[in-house]
Amino acid sequence: MLLGMGNPLLDMSAVVNEDLLVKYGMKPNDAILAADKHMPLYTELVDKYSVEYIAGGSSQNSLRVAQWILEKPKVAVLIGCVGRDDYSKILEKKAMGDGVCVKYQYTDDKPTGTCAVLITKNGTNRSLCANLAAAELFTIDHIRRPDVRQAIEQAEVYYSSGFFLTVSIETIVEIAQIALKRDKIFMMNLSAPFLSQFYKENMMRAMPYVDILFGNETEALTFAREHNFDTEDMHKVALKIAALPKQNPDRQRIVVITQGSDPVIVVEGGKCREFPVVFLPSEKVVDTNGAGDAFVGGFMAQLVKRRPIETCIKCAIWTATQIVQRSGCTFSGKPEFD
Ligand code: 26A
């Protein structure tokens, strides 16, 4: 069993030109929280661009992908908060259809969250701007609901996006403590540079519980700067993150850093290794939205099957390669990973 927590969001994806990014002060490859100045972006997208509505939310993406690889439904349970509206119906239908058992908390106070996904440079860049809305109203009482409690008590692997640090650090820590007590694996993602900068305290409250940490090179670099690592060498950065204080000393922290088309860096047992990724000619890249989430999904699917880390990484790479060849975090057919 896999338990994930995060912000369920409906992605509004559009191919745009860079002027739109400039207009809203966004970077070509980033993920941010919407501020007041970003609110008109959502209507502008609908009015002026061809918008595709796709199920998103980082953790939910990862769990959907894990379910796809596992081919056995309801291994993964997702918690997060949504509104009572059509968007949450779309999200739930999609996630359930992909085999994820969603246990949403519902609020009447805000609509389901959305994420503007601005695709530029032929799909190689994606800039995300999340309007969390209902997702932000998640409260820790949800994990006291009997069926949620039961799912938490039965999980073998736990996963939180870094994004959820902006919503409920209390929930992350409480679930991580249950994982620790049960000697199960707790995993987290750096998710975006802004989290290491502006949610540093929350991130470092969670870090001692993190058995496996994921991130990409930009996120890892920001983390290194924020923590005065005094190096930008990715191997050294990954080793230093792995060596940060840890609650369960019997399980050394594994750190997995993706670097786009460059090799994946993996620190395990204090040793650093590289895994090359599959080369994709640029004409095959549709959009990189969801690539990192799919990577984690492929990894988790093998991890719950207790496969060695090498297999987890190979599956992670395979899965990410599939997802970048499609729009958003989507897939179809039987997974052909063996
Ligand atoms: C708190 N923020 C900024 C976010 C997100 C997010 N999911 C949760 N919280 N910002 C973007 N995403 C999701 O990331 C996926 C791609 O990795 C998007 O919904 C998108 O599906």
Question: In words, what does this structure look like?
Answer:
The mean pLDDT is 96. The protein has twelve helices and 14 strands. It has helices at residues 18-23, 39-48, 58-70, 86-97, 146-154, 169-181, 193-198, 200-206, 217-226, 234-242, 291-304, 309-323; strands at 2-5, 9-15, 30-33, 52-55, 76-83, 101-107, 113-120, 125-131, 157-160, 185-189, 212-216, 254-259, 262-268, 271-275. The two termini are 21 Å apart. With 338 residues, the protein is an alpha/beta fold. Residues 6-7, 9, 11, 31, 33, 56-58, 61, 115, 128, 130, 132, 161, 163, 166, 289-290, 292-293, 329 line the site of 6N-dimethyladenosine.
Entry summary:
The chain has 338 residues and is α/β, with parallel strands linked by helices. It has helices at residues 18-23, 39-48, 58-70, 86-97, 146-154, 169-181, 193-198, 200-206, 217-226, 234-242, 291-304, 309-323; strands spanning 2-5, 9-15, 30-33, 52-55, 76-83, 101-107, 113-120, 125-131, 157-160, 185-189, 212-216, 254-259, 262-268, 271-275. Strand 13 (262-268) and strand 14 (271-275) form a beta hairpin.
Radius of gyration: 18 Å
**Proportion of strand residues:** 15-25%
| SSE string | EEHEHEHEHEEEHEHEHHEHHEEEHH
Shape type: globular
Structural class: alpha/beta
Distance between the termini: 21 Å
Taking the sheet with the most strands, its summary is: 9 strands, mixed
User: How many helical stretches?
Assistant: 12
Low-confidence stretches: none
Summarize the amount of helix as a percent range: 25-40%
Biggest sheet: strand arrangement = 6-5-1-9-10-11-12-13-14
User: What ligand molecules are bound, each kind once?
Assistant: 6N-dimethyladenosine
Total beta-strand segments = 14
